[in-house]
Amino acid sequence: MTIARVALGLLGVAGALALVVVVLGTFLPRLPVVGFLGSFVSGQYPLHAALGAVVSLAAGVGLLVLGVPRLGAVVTAVGALAVVGTLVVLATQVAAARAAGVRVDWGLALTAVDQRGAPPDLTVEYQPGLELAVHLPSGPGPHPVMVWVHGGSWVRGTTADRARANRWYADQGLAVVAVQYRLPGDAPLPGATLGEAQRHDVACALAWIAGAGVLHGLDPGAVVLGGQSAGATLALSTTAALAGVPRASLPGGCSAPVPRATVAFYPVVDMTQVAPGLQDAVFGGPASARPALLRAASPDELVDPRLPPTLLVLGRADNFIRADLVRGFDAALRAAGVPGRLVQVPYADHVFDHPYGSPGAQIVRPVVIDFVREEIRDPSGR
Question: 12 φ, ψ to 5°?
Answer without folding.
Answer: -65, -45
